[in-house]
Design a protein that fits this description.
4 helices, three-stranded antiparallel beta sheet, alpha+beta, single chain, 2 domains
């Protein structure tokens, strides 16, 4: 799994973000993935011309993501590469009542537990370990 694929899986499966495909341009078309976070309105609703903008958006299956065609909307977090972004994942897990334990030695060991379920991941980098453990815990990608 590439770093983009891991980040996208974390955004959708762990954080519950909804991806929307936005078509931009008139002669040359660009395909941008826009995000709707839990509790937020659809991405086109913030505009006065929302009825026109709504036509540019369609639901997007993240498994169809192709970095050669699609662009992630600006500032998309690097959950697997930046520890400050990975903390968003930990906060989300904590909000879902997961107990998170991180042990650092030669490698980073992440242990997630909740009412009899335990998921463990051992990796070289903390953000990757956090993301992989989170995906295991929510039933995402087999990692």
């Amino acid at each position: 799994m590439t770093s983009d694929e891991l980040n996208l899986q974390v955004a959708t499966k762990v954080l519950g973000w909804i991806p929307w495909l936005k078509v931009v341009g008139s002669t040359t078309l660009y395909y941008v993935i826009a995000w709707q976070k839990p509790g937020e309105q659809e991405p086109w609703m913030g505009s006065r011309d929302w009825k026109v903008l709504k036509e540019r958006y369609t639901p997007f299956d993240i498994n169809d993501y192709d970095p050669a065609i699609h662009t992630l909307s600006g500032g998309f977090p690097d959950f697997q590469g930046d520890i400050s972004d990975a903390w968003q994942v930990i906060k989300s897990l904590h909000d879902k009542e997961w107990f998170v334990s991180i042990h650092i030695a030669d490698t980073v060991f992440v242990d997630l537990s909740k009412t009899g379920e335990t998921f463990e991941v051992d990796e070289q980098e903390a953000p990757i370990a956090i993301c992989l453990a989170a995906l295991k815990a929510v039933g995402g990608e087999d990692v």
